């Protein structure tokens, strides 16, 4: 990133971002946000030892300033969008003074492996997305108190070392090279699972009872089988796959959002029992007509507010919009058409 032309001057840096982070006049500094200062190092920056949060997003750092290890009150540290490689981030594994850290973000750097963070026993958020990591090896040493784990946009090929994350609520593994859904059975508190842009061919959710959001967009699915036990599911995203039939959804009574766009569907079916469905995305399929649609979506006729059917053969039928508005009395949007 290029400099925005005013944040590199020493007076502003000495003040830690123009005074941001002071709770009142003369009080101890607890927050320091140096986002987009384009810093190569922190030599000209005052780093108060009272900091609770330190945000170094969007700089050009390659090494860690040793003064960070003096921040015994630090809860959140963001190193996002810098130039750290494995060696550059390695010292953090020995910094026991900040071992009470709860949130560590090393997103968008040059890591090739999971950093050693075993000393951070209180860690609840760990983000190493947008790096060059090829394996999840090392996650076994991450705190079992972790609630949010982000490893998206890497080159990971296998889901592993997850079994101890009993408190995990969010798992983001999108944009990797995964082929198989596995080792999820112990994640009994998982609420969100993001696996878009992988190479997964079949659904295996190991009966996750609390899962509320699932994304498997842009994979290689040909079947929807496998979601039937996810009874708490509210949002399901399956666009850009090779699914030919709607099935296995009748038990998902809490489902509000269903996206099956860009697949190979020829019939709307299997969702008549869903009474809470609000958004239904069926665009870019092969659905020939609107015949039977009323019955197919009977459970949510009055609840449905958004429907996408464009780029199906049925979207070219005369009175297409009029017919749909007649079926769904409370519809607010059909394709790009928004109604008052």
Total domain units: 2
Spatial strand order of the main sheet: 1-2-3-4-5-6-7-8-9-10-11-12-13-14-15
Q: Quick one: biggest sheet?
A: 15 strands, mixed
**General form:** elongated
Average predicted confidence as pLDDT: 92
Which CATH architecture of the largest domain would you pick?
A: Alpha-Beta Horseshoe
User: β content, as a range?
Assistant: 5-15%
**What structural class should be given to the helix and strand makeup?**
mainly beta
What is the tally of helical segments?
Answer: 4
CA gyration radius, whole angstroms: 24 Å
> Which spans have pLDDT < 50 for at least 5 consecutive residues?
1-26
CATH superfamily of the largest domain: Ribonuclease Inhibitor
CATH topology of the largest domain: Leucine-rich repeat, LRR (right-handed beta-alpha superhelix)
Series of secondary-structure elements, N-terminal to C-terminal: HEEEHEEEEEEEEEHEHEE
Instruction: Give the termini separation.
Output: 43 Å
Pfam family, one: LRR_4
Keywords: Leucine-rich repeat, Repeat
Region (Disordered): 1-28
InterPro entries: Leu-rich_rpt, Leu-rich_rpt_4, Leu-rich_rpt_typical-subtyp, LRR_dom_sf, SDS22/Internalin_LRR
Detailed description of the structure:
- This protein has two domains: 1-197, Leucine-rich repeat, LRR (right-handed beta-alpha superhelix); 201-340, Alpha-Beta Horseshoe (Leucine-rich repeat, LRR (right-handed beta-alpha superhelix)), CATH 3.80.10.
- The chain is 6% helix and 13% strand.
- The chain has a 15-stranded mixed beta sheet with strand order 1-2-3-4-5-6-7-8-9-10-11-12-13-14-15, with no helix packed on it.
- 37% of the residues are buried.
- The chain contains four helices and 15 strands.
- Mean pLDDT is 92; it is low at 1-26.
- With 340 residues, it is mainly β.
- The protein has helices at 10-14, 86-89, 293-296, 320-327, and strands spanning 31-33, 53-55, 76-78, 103-105, 125-127, 148-150, 170-172, 192-194, 213-215, 235-237, 257-259, 279-281, 306-308, 333-334, 337-338.
């Amino acid at each position: 990133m290029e400099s925005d032309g005013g944040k590199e001057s020493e007076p502003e840096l000495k003040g830690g971002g123009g005074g941001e982070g002071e709770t009142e006049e003369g009080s101890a500094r607890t927050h320091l946000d140096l986002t987009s200062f384009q810093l190569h190092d922190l030599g000209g920056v005052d780093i108060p030892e009272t900091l609770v949060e330190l945000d170094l997003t969007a700089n050009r750092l390659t090494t860690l300033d040793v003064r960070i290890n003096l921040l015994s009150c630090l809860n959140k540290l963001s190193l996002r969008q810098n130039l750290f490689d494995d060696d550059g981030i390695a010292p953090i594994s020995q910094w026991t003074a900040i071992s009470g850290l709860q949130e560590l973000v090393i997103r968008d750097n040059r890591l090739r492996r999971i950093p050693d963070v075993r000393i951070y026993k209180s860690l609840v958020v760990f983000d190493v997305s947008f790096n060059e990591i090829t394996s999840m090896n090392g996650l076994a040493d991450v705190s079992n108190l972790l609630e949010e784990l982000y490893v998206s946009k890497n080159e990971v090929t296998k889901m592993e070392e997850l079994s101890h994350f009993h408190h995990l609520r969010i798992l983001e593994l999108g944009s990797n090279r995964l082929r198989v859904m596995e080792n999820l059975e112990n994640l009994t508190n998982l609420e969100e699972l993001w696996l878009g842009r992988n190479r997964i061919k079949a659904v295996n959710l190991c009966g996750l009872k609390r899962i509320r959001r699932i994304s498997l967009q842009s994979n290689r699915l040909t079947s929807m089988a496998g979601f039937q036990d996810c009874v708490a599911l509210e949002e399901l995203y399956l666009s850009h796959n090779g699914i030919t039939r709607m099935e296995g959804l009748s038990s998902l009574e809490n489902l509000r959002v269903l996206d099956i766009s860009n697949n190979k569907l020829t019939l709307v079916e299997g969702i008549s029992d869903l009474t809470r469905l609000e958004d239904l995305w069926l665009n870019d399929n092969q659905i020939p007509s609107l015949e039977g649609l009323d019955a197919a979506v009977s459970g949510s006729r009055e609840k449905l507010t958004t429907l996408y059917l464009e780029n199906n053969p049925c979207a070219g039928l005369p009175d297409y919009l009029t017919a749909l508005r007649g079926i769904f009395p409370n519809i607010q949007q059909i394709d790009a058409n928004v109604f008052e």
